Amino acid sequence: MTGFPIYRPRRLRATENLRSLIRETSLSVKDLIFPLFVVPGENVKNEIETLKNNYQWSVDRVMEAVDEAVELGIPAVLLFGLPSYKDEEGSSAWDDNEPVQRASKAIKAKYPEMVVITDACFCEYTTHGHCGILTPDCASVDNDKTLPNLAKLAVSQARCGADIIAPSNMMDGYVATMRKALDDAGYTNTAIMAYSAKFASAYYGPFRAAADSAPGKGDRKGYQMDPGNSDEAMREIALDIEEGADIVMVKPALAYQDVTRRAHETFNRPLCVYNVSGEYAMVKAAAERGWIDEKRIVMETMLSFKRAGAKMIITYHALDVARWLKEQ
């Protein structure tokens, strides 16, 4: 390659219009998915202490957040629910009268074009905080006994309007089970976004407080992946695609961008990353102390996810990012 002084890279960096012409990766509001927490009760808007500027919403008020997302052009929301009751199985997860199902109906009634994604797991719904039915000794989750409940959960959420079911439970065979249940119930157009590469991460801490989903005993290392395992992540993604996943995900996003890049280069499926609660909380804490420029840090981070190969980004920064993009 011809070098200096014939080739001067700075020629194309001199103005914003020149830089925009050669920009390789860009960020759009259409890349964003906004997570929302819905809870029982009425007139509830509780700020989540561990997730500043994010709230727990009752169904009668959640449209305030959805209205803002629509105004800003965000195309999708991801619903997490705190139920009105819990039991050992997590049966409230497939109750059509619980907050996630009711919120889905309300959103689709007002905004039919808004993509409603529903989290499909049991940690918020079980008394023990694990992602399925426990073995008799309570030492682990019984994978195969949990699968039929995941089928019921998927069908309930689809029946109430979910466009995409997002199972985050990490059970073996979960995608195939939910795909068959959805198809048998007539919901062949309901997509599955699989949490295919979900790691047993310390970055989830603030979320567990927000969703009241911390395990009462033990941990989730028996079904979430070890943080050191990139090859295993590729195997998990391949399995989920074989079972019918329409979209695959890497979670968390920031510390696993090597996995995102490998997934992007290896698989022909839309790829999502989850910019999780711990990643968000660290930025907020540093910004509050004046240690960083929050806008620049967040926008650079979002762009890095796209550069690594993500097609879509779940992030608690969604409203801020949408506003900043609009300003640009």
TrEMBL record:
5-aminolevulinate 1 binds at residues 208, 220. GO terms for cellular component: cytosol. GO terms for molecular function: porphobilinogen synthase activity; zinc ion binding. It comes from the Bacteria. 5-aminolevulinate 2 binds at residues 277, 316. Its cofactor is Zn(2+). Pathway: Porphyrin-containing compound metabolism; protoporphyrin-IX biosynthesis; coproporphyrinogen-III from 5-aminolevulinate: step 1/4. The active site is at residues 198, 251. GO terms for biological process: protoporphyrinogen IX biosynthetic process. Mg(2+) binds at residue 236. It catalyses: 2 5-aminolevulinate = porphobilinogen + 2 H2O + H(+). Zn(2+) binds at residues 121, 123, 131. PANTHER family: DELTA-AMINOLEVULINIC ACID DEHYDRATASE (PTHR11458). Catalyzes an early step in the biosynthesis of tetrapyrroles. Binds two molecules of 5-aminolevulinate per subunit, each at a distinct site, and catalyzes their condensation to form porphobilinogen. Homooctamer. Belongs to the ALAD family. NCBIfam families: PRK09283.1. This is Delta-aminolevulinic acid dehydratase. It comes from Succiniclasticum ruminis DSM 9236.
